[in-house]
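Q: Here's a chain of 531 amino acids. Please give me its 3D structure as tokens.
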Amino acid sequence: MSNLSNTVQQARNYHISDIPKRSAQRHPHKLALVDGNTRLTYQQLHDQVEQLAAYLLQIGLKKADRLLLLSHNCWQFPVIHFAAARIGVLTVPVNFMLNAQELAYIIENSKTQIIFAEDQLTATVDTALGQAKHQLTHFYKIPLNDGVSSASWKNFNECFTQKLSPLPPQLLSAYEPIRMMYTSGTESMPKGVLLNSEALMWQYMSAILEGEMQVNDRELHAFPLYHCAQFDVFLNVDLYLGATSYILRGFEPERVLALIEKEKINKLFCPPTAWIALLNAKGFASTDLTSLNKAYYGASSMPKSVISSLMEKLPHIRFWQFYGQTEMAPVATVLYPEDHQEFSTSVGKPAFHVETAIMAKDGRLVETGEIGEIVHKSPHLTLGYADQDDKTTEAFVHGWFHSGDLGYFAETGHLYIVDRIKDMVKTGGENVATREVEDVIYRFNAIQEVAVFGVPHPHWIEAVTAVIVIKQGHHFVLDELLAHCKKHLSTYKMPKSVHMVEALPKNASGKILKRQLRQQYQSLYIQEQTA
């Protein structure tokens, strides 16, 4: 490329790292982030990002290096992310619930050069580094809990003790990787999903357009920022627009309700399991929620009974469903507020910058009403999986991205999910969609949560199995639940066994871990056969 072309391209470029600067230019004195007693205006946020970026450059980080970020939600999280992006370093946000062995895998797989970790998590990192072959020398602890760390850890605040000269513009391409997001690993080992600035910025625009997001929003962020839903559909969109964000370490129903009332929050995202928890919270009925007018859900399917109850109890709130996945950065389809009555079991229609189709196994795009795999084309899409060309090739076969979900389009253009391909239960020669069985069980009034999955069976090959959590104060005999299922399900779809538990295993983003349940119950029928 000629010098003139470079000059023109530099003037045209818009990179994710430009967000703090441009928001500070538009709204310098407006409140950007609130985290406990810390309150940052947009100018202060920009200043923090610039100082940290200059520090990272000074200690030797360079474009395309990887920065691993391990922390509960905090104001430092977006500062670290944007500072890394400012010099072309990829941020690798990691699940703070991982054990040392799981973390060691990601440290090796991501080939990270520097780690920022919450102080109470540094010991886990130390253990992981003892197991990992990949070694690094830069360690910074984020002081959230007065946790004690080993001598190798510097304090995050040390990055700000010496005022550094402002950074000059960096030559960054919107088409090069700027983030590595690890899949949740509910079904297999997590993969490093590479996202570039182009994908993220296109997705931000889709979220803004489809979710009616605005500069005057006041949003509460209670779910993990390491997950792309809370981080890229909501927090970074707020920072892009110039809205005000309140950050919580994690989701506590009573705390969320109290903050909505106190801070006049008008916008909230929760996965379905959290909306269920809010409905069942002691303070739900007595909390003033009149300021809340926009609500969003995603990450997993919302039972029809739950969304119906939410709309009945909160008639002034408009609900959106965002369906997608990490590889889509993450939004793929949207169910609009006006469609929630008639199409509540749908995931809506393709988002503004997304083309979605249904594909048969042979690569043929199928007709309306026919079930197949949901596939997408979009500038939101990942560049692929880090160092896993085979997985990338598999995901993009036939020139579309393969979601791993089975679904179909109705005549109205609404997309319906049948199930995750890996969640389909093959029993007695028939396929059973676990979502269908779960929806039926959720309609039984005493059920708070349910997970349906298949486990090995000597006769049926796989047996439909349900694990349930009962609402507090409710009691029933199992035959009542089975009779309810029998009214709505064919015999082969009926659960062969139902198990009551206190809580279902979930990851930090609220997804039920069916892989863990399958492992727990996989020997159930084998044991019965040999007893």
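Q: Can you summarize the key feature?
A: The CA atoms of residues 99 and 505 lie 15 Å apart.
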